[in-house]
Amino acid sequence: MPLPYKDNFEYDDYSIDEKGRDYVERRGGTPRYTTDQIGAFEVVTKETKLNRDIPNAEPHGNMLMQKITPDMIGAEWSVWGGGEDGSAADVNPHTVLGGDFRWVNYKASFDFLLDTDTQQVEGRENYVLIGLRQVKSAWSDSSAPYNARIYADGRYELWKLGNIEKSGTLKGFNNKEWHHLAFEAKENNFTLYLDGKEIDSFIDEDATVMAGRVAIGSGYYQTLFDNLHIDKLKRYTYTSEKYDNAQGKKMNSEEEALSQKDKWNPISYIGDWEFLQSGYGHFNRTLMRAGTEIPVWNGVTITHQDIAKQQGT
Predict the structure, then answer these.
(1) Domain closes at, from 178, 203, 232
(2) How far, CA to CA in Å, does 285 sit from each of 177, 204, 252?
(3) pLDDT tens figures, 182-238
(4) Total domains, the chain
């Protein structure tokens, strides 16, 4: 999917159908290109459950809302053990923008309005979240490896793989007003912005995950989102090429592997070869493991000692 990408949830370009329904109504409030992991993210024109007074509701028009509140949290299904069937889920709502798992350098942003009308429940934090470089499912508050949170009490946190890298408190934060949140991934540097101002940043020295989708999240409160944007960065590429170990062929010799030029199957396997495919964690493919005596990448023999001089190669 090319960048920039944007969604204001209006969908005015779509006509009314023969039953008099607009695009949002006939989709039951389902936004485009999102995959809810926990919670329920739906397009609304006005909040109905609490009859909230939404500031600047008219210019915002349609908005995306996380609808599940603490009194209706779904129950866990402990099919794999380690939990109790029927207990309330301890993972907070988030949805993944279908987008492109090959996105590398980009800035994701949206407007948000926290829900301060629903009574906050102990142990259920009220926050908004934006996650970057999501590539696989994970049982956490976001399946993205890098996340930024803004809490209703003005705290903020920057996370990497479930650990807080940076945190602080926003002075004068008004949780009853709309704000603009942005989170940027530039190589291994991650920067948080609020209302156009840089708040904090951190560097992932390990460059753990270099590409992936965008995640949006919140606590179990009816947080509102609008004007979602994903923008490319000047002088930085946003595209990448990804291959997995299924894109390969078994060859009879290293010489044959070195001479093959199949761009769709660039990896060659030589000698004893083991291939296992299992799991559901990866959205684009299931988890795979492959082993071979000599892996060859389109004419280049790969060894564990090879070092790339340019980051990302």
Answers:
(1) 232
(2) 41, 26, 27
(3) 999 999 999 999 999 999 999 999 888 899 999 999 999 999 999 999 999 999 999
(4) 2
My answer on whether 286 and 223 are in the same domain is: no
Hey, what's the torsion of the CAs at 134, 154, 198, 212, to 10 degrees? 0
Q: Give me the pLDDT at residue 76, please.
A: 65
Q: How many helices (H) and strands (E) does the chain have?
A: 3, 21
Mean pLDDT within 164-187: 97
Domain that holds residue 265: 248-301
Residues 6+ away with beta carbon under 8 Å from 198: 191, 192
Query: In angstroms, what CA-CA distances link 18 with 9, 114, 170?
Result: 22, 37, 50
Residue 53 counted as domain residue? yes
Please identify which residue in the block is written with the tokens 């609808």.
67
Whether 126 has a pLDDT exceeding 50, the answer reads yes
**Domain-embedded: residue 253:** yes
Between CA 181 and CA 228, with CA 44 as vertex, the angle to 5 degrees is 25
C-alpha dist (Å) from residue 291 to 29, 249, 250, 313: 46, 13, 11, 21
